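Subject: Co-chaperone DjlA N-terminal domain-containing protein structure
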Amino acid sequence: MLDRLQSFFQSLTQFRPQPAFAPNDPRIAVAALCLQVMEADGVVHDAEQVKLRSLLREQYALDENALDALLAESRKAESEAVDYFRFTSELKRTLDESQRQQLVGVLWDIVYADGNRSEMEDHAIWRIADLLGVSARDRVHERQEALARAGLKGDGDA
C-alpha cells in the first residue's frame, strides 16, 4: 500500500518539467541586469542582443538551449522586478569584489555593442554599480576598458 502511494506521488512529479535554472541562480540575476541595461534607453539593438548572447554563452559555457532557457528565466525575473535591488543584493552576496567589478565591465560591453552610450544606460550602470558596491573610479575604469574593447574613441568621463 505504501509502495503504491509512493509510486503515485513519484508519477505526479515525474512528468513535470523542471526549470533549467533555479530561481535564485545568480546567472539569472546577471542576465536580468544585462537586459535592464539593454532596455534602459528604450531601444534594444540587434547588436546588443548578439553581444549579450555571446557574453553569456562564453561566461557560463552554455549551449543554445541552455542559453535560451537562461534568457527566458531572466526575462521573467526582470518583468517581475520593481528595481535593480532584487538582483544586486543577491549578487553582492554571491560575487566577490573583483567579480562585481567585472560584471560592471560586462554591462558596459553591452552598452557599447551598438556603438553608442545613452544617458539612460549610463545612469542604469551607475545605479547598478553603486548597489553592487563598485566604486565610481572602478566603474569609470570598466567603462574605459569596454570602450577600448569595442574599438571606439573616448566619449567623456560621464
